[in-house]
Structures are given as C-alpha cells and as structure tokens.
Amino acid sequence: MSGNLTRYVDAWEQTIRSVAELAEGLSPADWDRATECPGWSVRDNVSHVIGLERELLGDPAPSHTLPRDLVHIRNEMGRYMEIAVDVRRHHTPAELVGELNDTIARRVKALREEVERRDPEEEVEVFGGLRRWTYEILLRNRAFDVWVHEQDIRRAVGRPGNLGAPAALAAKDVIVSALPVVVVKRAGAPAGSAVIFDVTGPVKFSAVVRVDTDGRGVLSPWLFGDPTARLTMDWETFARLGCGRVSPRTVHVTVQGDEELAGRVLDAMAVTP
C-alpha cells in the first residue's frame, strides 16, 4: 500500500471529523451565514461535503432539478456540484449533522478497507465523469477539498483553527502544483523570468516558478540570482487566493521586484473550479 494513500486518508479523516465537530456546535443562525465560497452558506458547505462523500460511496445520485436563478454557477462542474447542495437546502441542521456523521462512519470504513487493495495509479472517474484522476490524486484532492470547506465554515462563524492540519499540506500540494500555469499561461511571465512565493505561518515554504527559454513554467527547488518578482504572504492568505476565496486587493501581500507581473500573478491565483 502506498504511504501517500494512508497519509491522504488520515488527513481527510482528521479534517472531515473537524467539520463534524464544528457542525455539532453551530447555532441556528450560523447555518445560514454566508461564506467566502461563492453563493454558498455554511449549510451549503456541509451539504457539499456530504454529497461528494456519498457519491464516492456509490450512493445513488439525487434526482433533482436546479433552480434557474443560481447566478454563482459558472460552468458544468459548478452545476454538477450544486445538485447535492441544493437538494439539502431545506434539511434541518439536525438532519445534516446526522447525515454527515453517518457518511463519515461509512466512508472511513470503506476507505480503510479500500486502500489495502487499490493501485495508487489506477484511474477513476469522478463527478459523473467530468474528471478522471488517479486514485492517489483523488484521495489527495478529497483531503484538500474538505479542508478548504472547513476553513470556509470557520471563517464564516468566527472559529479559526486547524490551519496547520495534515490536510493543509494536501492543499499546499494542490495549489503549488498549479503555480506554473498561473505564472506563465495566465499571468504571461516572459521567458527567463522567475517568481518566488514565500509563505509564512503554520504551513511555511517557498515555491519557485522559473520560466525556461522555451517559455515553459517549471517548479524549481532553487533559484540562482534575484527573482523577477517575490510575493510574501501568510499561509491562510495563500490558500484563500489559491482557492478563489478573496480578491488580492483585500489581503496583505508584500511584493518585491516587478510589481506589474506580481499583480497579474495574484489576479490569476485561483486554481479551483
């Protein structure tokens, strides 16, 4: 069994149990608070977590027609995700907490048995066939996704925590892996340039994106000389930007070097659907 599979399952379990603990302590008003996830309340974030885990358990997809006025839906993936959320919008908090706990118990048991026999490189279809990932990437992305929604809930209800959780490292892996696309394809960094992301806080790291002579962006473990632009921020800011939760104009980022390029990079940092 791949060590990464176990690591990602452990990280996923820690963060989804944290979501359940949060949900059990919410007040009636908390459930309807808006979050930084566009168009979603605290209730909707919990419903999303339930819906995806039930899908991965093989439960039947809900038969549900979405309203036409959901303006936050931007693409087919968003429409697919919304079904499990919208179908639960009239469920009571007690019903959602009960369903979440039941789903966690079933999913933990299934995953602990599953990782013993699954090939990490086996390809699997998810989201009704809209994505095809390796099994290892699926587990990494589930840890990432649940942690992101846990943080959405925590910020909405004013209960910060778990920023340095094991699943936060999965989130770092996901966002950092997309930085070459952000820097080159979206921000248009020229050949020969380099951008450094210096991140402080509970998840501390530096990520270097170099643009080679052919204009391809690559993650590099080192950089000789000064970067074209250096962006310094704390971990929560990096995660919020990478998940499209906040505008770069409303958070603190220290920029050194080419400010115009840095601005384009920050505007392009959202890597989630």
Automatic annotation (TrEMBL):
What SUPFAM superfamilies does this protein map onto?
DinB/YfiT-like putative metalloenzymes (SSF109854)
Q: Where is the Mycothiol-dependent maleylpyruvate isomerase metal-binding domain?
A: 14-154
GO MF assignments? metal ion binding
Q: What InterPro entries is this protein classified in?
A: DinB/YfiT-like (IPR034660), Maleyloyr_isom (IPR017517), MDMPI_C-term_domain (IPR010872), MDMPI_metal-binding (IPR024344)
What Pfam families does the entry give? MDMPI_C (PF07398), MDMPI_N (PF11716)
Every MDMPI C-terminal domain range: 171-263
Q: What's the name of the protein?
A: Mycothiol-dependent maleylpyruvate isomerase metal-binding domain-containing protein
